[in-house]
Amino acid sequence: MMAKELVAIFLAAILTENYVLNKFLGICPFLGVSKKVNTAVGMSAAVTFVMVLATAVTWPIYTYILLPNGLGYLQTIVFILIIAALVQLVETVLKKYMPPLYNSLGIYLPLITTNCAVLGVTMLVLEKGAADPSFGYLQSLVNSFGAGIGFLVAMVLFAGVRERMESCDIPQSLKGLPITLVAASLVAVSFLGFNGLVEGLLG
Amino acid sequence: MAEKKSLWNEFSKGILKENPVLCLVLGTCPTLAVTTAASNAIGMGIAATLVLVCSNAVISALRRVIPDKVRIPAYITIIAGFVTIVQMLVKAYAPSIDESLGIYLPLIVVNCIILGRAEMYASKNSVLPSILDGLGMGVGFTAALLLMGIIREFFGAGSLFGVPVTAGMIDPVIIFILPPGGFFVFGMLIALANRLTRKKKAPAELGCSGCPLQANCSKIKEGEGCEK
User: Fold this and answer.
1) Which of A4, A32, A187, B212 lies at 20 to 30 Å from B118 by C-alpha?
2) C-alpha angle A52/B84/B94, rounded to 5°?
3) Are strands B159-160 and B163-164 parallel, antiparallel or unpaired?
4) Is the distance from CB of B186 to CB of B32 less than 8 angstroms?
5) Residue A91 structural domain
6) pLDDT in tens, A172-185
7) Nearest residue in B to A79, CA atom
8) Residues of chain B with C-beta less than 8 angstroms from the C-beta of A24
9) What is the pTM of this model?
């Protein structure tokens, strides 16, 4: 029962509640770093890692420190500082102990502090938890992981679309960003098709 | 007189010439997310403008005190403080807007327009021009959001500011208020802005030049170039 619920949360976070295409979080890296598949993968891996880590830290801090003391309104300021500190910490630790991993992910880390998807996911899982008490720590972590993987799926798909677009003949005014946005719109249409899929499969 | 004119320029450049959304292409996340209705767009615009003006004022007043190395965390803390204040004000006086903006209200913290203006302008200029710069950018942001909101609400729901316009006559094209419609309308608006300004300057690119993290990001882009 538990496992089924977690799989449903995971799939929903990837497909029906995709953070980029459905909630518009993390649009800057989605448009900026998706020209090549391998940079898209590197960026998304770093985002997923920080998302899970940030949820793992902010969830207990909010539930056990801020909320009981009536400090819920400090959520925004505390979370952004925690995320900034975490990103810095991860960067330092990776640099010292895991240089190969640092070389592949390190370059993306400083960009993640101001990625709204990371701050967004830590707040959205708490919102879900407030609406439904059975949505606890484990569910929140699975949701964050799913959100990261959803980011990866959207980035990689979109990088593929953009690589094909390179050779197309595009009207002058639409060149560059506008056609990229129109392509993103079409990718988002395809994700609309997943609506109701998770409930249908596992409900 | 010349003094007055340059202050006016600080204000007005944000509205058309350097519009943060359509020309600098910053703050794309809220632009796409909250523009499903014109009233949401105004709420978001006003909230962001308040934060922008206050944080610009404080950051420019403290620009000689904040050490260069920790400036980004310092800016983020200042911005987060003002966002919290705005959040509490909106919750108290406009609960319906708080409900429809939801998560995107606290996410003003990571809106790159605000951090971008802090880094590009407020950290280098004195208080009064910084306030005007923030105000101009805020008005430009609100205007662009409003334009998107009106287009999407009109086609997607057949209403304007919640008042039905074409509701009985034409079936609304719902996709305009769904996520794909956001990407599409935004793309078309930038194309239009490109078309109108084409003779004068290069077309809009993603707002990397206005982004405080440009140095890091362009490293990645250079990597992309090398692999080709």
Assistant:
1) A32
2) 115
3) antiparallel
4) yes
5) 2-197
6) 778 778 888 888 88
7) B80
8) 28-30, 32-33, 179, 182
9) 0.82
